[in-house]
Amino acid sequence: MGDVHHLYFEVLRGKAKHKFCALVCAEAPLRFALINTENQADVLDNPALRPCQVQIKSDDYDFLSHDSWIDLHEFAAIPRTVDQIAAEIDAGAYRGTLSTEDLIKVIRGIEASVTLVKKQADRALQELRAELSRRLQTKSE
Fold it and tell me: What is the model's pTM?
């Protein structure tokens, strides 16, 4: 959980393109939070959507050329399992993993979301909290 990939999305707001995205749910269909280099002013000015935007710094991630935003007001779904996208991951789609600090911000962003489908949000939170717990336990050992 929290792994960042550069995957091809066939339909994304009317376009097909590669996007950076963070894995938030490994249960099929896989769910990703899209990472955007820009954020729309109407999103940042909207009190319901602003808490669902997590800024990540390019200085913290080699794969980013600009500070970016993880968009948590909706998830992008890929109707495949992790095993089914393994070939893409092996071909270089994997870019890195979100830091523990950013993972905590993602969890808080999902908790604050009023636009996510509750079942999807709950499943993502379950998986992300398990990952956070694993990281914190490993760190304390």
Answer: 0.89
